[in-house]
Design a protein that fits this description.
globular, mainly beta, 190 residues, single chain, 10-stranded antiparallel beta barrel
Length: 190
């Protein structure tokens, strides 16, 4: 009898916990689900959720473009569907990821970036918003190598359910000049 009561209790406990975290990644939903209680803007990254095959290109020190690198870009909902996390897995072994949270008070996304190349005691943060139906722009204050004040701007653009593009570029404060240093094009796989 004790074993049956214990089994009933454990079954109730497991069902209770899984219902409490029903928007987390699971066997049924490997990329999680958007929590209906999340800010509506949390859906800005919805078309990117899943796995995409991408081509990454970055600038060499001499200003030319390095060879293309194949990469997987994986996106999922985290924190029970209240935020978004992404991870890049690149053939060159330089992996990275971000945690993306929307803040209703500022009406901005805050994106915390990390990379496998080095562990940082403080993660760099970009902030921004969806500026058009298929475009999200994020900024981080950063001086150019010559000391000119500006931003490093990240832009997701041409976002559809099948593909998206991304560019990282330095821009001056007025955004009249830009210098792309990294670009990625992606095709959604699942």
């Amino acid at each position: 009898m004790k074993n049956i009561l214990l089994l009933i209790f454990l079954s109730f406990f497991v069902v209770s916990i899984s219902a409490q975290y029903e928007y987390e990644p699971s066997m049924q939903n490997p990329f999680g689900k958007l929590n209906p209680a999340a800010y509506p803007q949390t859906a800005d990254f919805e078309p990117l959720i899943g796995v995409s095959e991408c081509i990454s290109e970055s600038r060499a020190a001499d200003g030319s473009w390095n060879s293309e690198v194949n990469m997987l870009w994986k996106w999922k909902y985290i924190m029970n569907g209240m935020a978004v996390q992404d991870e890049t897995l690149k053939e060159d072994g330089l992996h990275s990821g971000s945690i993306r949270q929307f803040n209703a008070d500022s009406s901005k996304w805050y994106v915390h970036y990390y990379a496998s190349a080095s562990a940082s005691p403080a993660l760099p943060v970009w902030e921004g918003s969806k500026v058009e139906e298929n475009k999200i722009v994020l900024y981080r204050r950063q001086a150019a190598p010559n000391g000119t004040d500006g931003y490093y701007r990240l832009t997701f653009y041409e976002i559809t359910d099948e593909s998206f593009n991304w560019v990282g570029e330095w821009v001056d404060l007025g955004e009249t000049f830009s210098y792309p240093t990294w670009k990625i094009s992606c095709i959604k796989q699942k």
